[in-house]
Amino acid sequence: MATTTEDVRPALGRLGVRALLTVSAVLAAALVYLLFVTVGGYELRVPETPGSSVSRPMEFGEMVGAATIACFAGLAFLTVLERFTPKALTIWTVAAVLLYLATLPYLPGFRVMDRVIIVLMHTALAAVLILGLRRTAARPV
What is the DSSP string of the chain? Predict the structure, then answer.
């Protein structure tokens, strides 16, 4: 019996795998939200405006919407970079990590537990998205 080694490609292709990864990243953040807010009964509150002392509840839909936009923007940025530079993966990874760090809740107006939950949501999303998209990135030949 002869065996051959072939390049096995996923049935979805790279774009399909990337789309699945972005959805998985959103689901990871949603899972954190659901565990703390829905199951745990905690009311996650965010400032009405940056730095405001007045807060409002963060709704599930707005969290999912913001996460989805951020994930697909990251995917689009990586895809565009890959067309124009062989250093796309490095540039994208640095930008993604910097954006992750910049969007953590540093400003006043957050309670401690609000900060913890938001950091956990950010971390879950970033871990899936950054590590996953790095694995699917086009490598320079």
Answer: ----------TTHHHHHHHHHHHHHHHHHHHHHIIIIIIT----EEESSTT-S-EEEPPHHHHHHHHHHHHHHHHHHHHHHHHH-TTHHHHHHHHHHHHHHHTSS-STT--HHHHHHHHHHHHHHHHHHHHHHHHHSPPP-
